[in-house]
Amino acid sequence: xxxxxxxxxxxxxxxxxxxxxxxxxxxxxxxxxxxxxxxxxxxxxxxxxxxxxxxxxxxxxxxxxxxxxxxxxxxxxxxxxxxxxxxxxxxxxxxxxxxxxxxxxxxxxxxxxxxxxxxxxxxxxxxxxxxxxxxxxxxxxxxxxxxxxx
Length: 150
Prior knowledge:
Helix content is 67%, strand content 0%. By secondary structure, the protein is mainly α. The radius of gyration is 24 Å and the shape is globular.
């Protein structure tokens, strides 16, 4: 009876499913499209389009509002295009420039692969410190008060 149930269940399984009789060398590998759909949650064409988006922001670590704009834009793209966290993290290496690029590679080496939420927190910790906040407030005040002088 048990042998019959196992045979029935084996017949219901897709051919790529590992059974007791299969080995990693004999199992079928999913196609590129299947792999992309399973691992990223999007089809291959969408994944290609998303990575080529011209709207991806870069982050230099310079400028008063640079980190705030960077984080805000990433969240907007994530929401608008349903970009999975995994794809955002995979793009980070090409989004950091100048000062932030050196920082990114150092952090990546020390902390390995992390989620976007973790990277966001680290960006805020690094560039949202008191001196950065002071520079942002000063820039904001001067832009507001200078517009009233005109």
